[in-house]
Design a protein that fits this description.
Layout lengths: L3 E5 L20 E2 L2 E2 H11 L4 E6 L4 H6 L4 H7 L9 H9 L1 E6 L6 H7 L1 H4 L4 E4 L3 E4 L5 H12 L2 E7 L9 E9 L2 E9 L10 E9 L3 H6 L11 H11 L2 E5 L3 E4 L3 H38 L1
Parallel strand pairs: 1-4, 1-6, 4-5, 8-12
Antiparallel strand pairs: 2-3, 6-11, 7-13, 8-11, 9-10, 10-12
Bound molecules: uridine 5'-triphosphate.
Uridine 5'-triphosphate binds next to helix 5.
Catalytic activity: alpha-D-glucose 1-phosphate + UTP + H(+) = UDP-alpha-D-glucose + diphosphate
Enzyme class: transferase
Family: Belongs to the UDPGP type 2 family.
């Protein structure tokens, strides 16, 4: 039902300078995959096939990543390195990618509005690739799509953060309608310490209904002089409905050095090594089957 996922990826990633001086933050590797690939995999797992990416200057490598590289494929053809491209090949085959440039960095709200041309008039998901989410079960977007089917309104993923951290996020207040669900009544972008309406911080996963574009168009620059999605969502919540969802799973803030290092350590142990073991077992079983067939 929700087929498109928007990736605002035009930001400068200043917290990671100098690494991000000429390399997009979204292309920083977590073990052996760039951040954005994890986000795209999460969107595909949630049933989406249209990946709409908002880019900016210096983001060419991001576009190249989701395209074939014939020269490289020719080089490694027939070697055991070929299988290292299996995942990205699968992604390129099962999703299509469209791009638009945000020419001025006027904030996340503005980046989402820039993506309107690609998204059109339908509900869509938003992934901020620097928030890396991992789960044993269903991915965060898949959990949110199931909720969208029930509520048919915009949904934001939230997480409880320590009191001293709320000033880094958009923070909500709401009426609790289930253990893990709130109907949003207030939202503040980066509240000054001590003024936060709760400890429920919005993380980089959203499902938005297309009327959000009009709300953004009518939103004046807010915190930091940027057009904030939080301000547009508050208006939408006041005039309609926005749900905040305490998602199941783990999130790493890969926009910060500490969160990025935590993500690498976690993914190496729990994703990369597990996948390698599963792959090795698959190969062993195939070899055993071949041997049995011969004997
Ligand atoms: P952030 O503020 O976390 O990313 O924006 P940033 O600006 O790239 O990083 P720092 O703070 O300078 O280190 C959240 C998301 O919104 C996108 C960013 O690319 C990031 O994915 N964004 C932000 C845009 O696409 N355009 C903007 O004008 C602002």
């Amino acid at each position: 039902m929700i087929k498109k996922c928007l990736f605002p990826a035009a930001g400068y990633g200043t917290r990671f300078l100098p690494a991000t001086k000429s390399m997009p933050k979204e292309m920083m590797p977590v073990v052996n995959k760039p951040l954005i690939e994890y986000g795209v995999e999460e969107a595909i797992a949630a049933g989406m096939n249209g990946m709409c990416i908002v880019t900016g200057r210096g983001k060419h490598s991001l576009i190249d990543h989701f395209d074939k590289n014939y020269e490289l494929e020719d080089q490694i053809k027939g070697t055991n390195k070929e299988e290292l491209l299996d995942d990205i090949r699968g992604i390129i085959e099962s999703a299509h990618f469209t791009y638009i440039r945000q020419s001025e960095m006027k904030g996340l709200g503005h980046a989402i509005l820039t993506g309107r041309e690609l998204v059109g008039d339908e509900p869509f998901a938003v992934v901020l690739a620097d928030d890396l989410c991992v789960n044993d079960g269903k991915g965060v977007l898949e959990q949110m799509v199931a909720l969208y089917k029930q509520f048919r309104c915009s949904i934001v993923a939230v997480e409880e953060v320590p009191a001293g951290e709320t000033h880094k996020y958009g923070v909500i207040a709401g009426d609790q309608i289930r253990d893990d669900l709130y109907r949003v009544t207030n939202m503040v972008e980066k509240p000054a310490p001590g003024t936060e309406p709760s400890n429920l911080a919005i993380i980089g996963r959203y499902i938005l209904t297309p009327d959000i574009f009009e709300y953004i168009e009518n939103t004046q620059p807010g915190k930091g002089g940027e057009i904030q999605i939080t301000d547009a969502l508050l208006k939408q919540a006041q005039e309609g409905c926005v749900i905040a969802y305490k998602f199941k799973g783990k999130r790493f803030d890969c926009g910060s050095v500490e969160g990025y290092i935590d993500a690498i350590n976690y993914c190496y142990e729990n994703v990369y090594l597990q996948d390698s073991k599963a792959e090795l077992n698959k190969k062993k079983t195939e070899k055993q089957k071949r041997l049995l067939a011969v004997t």
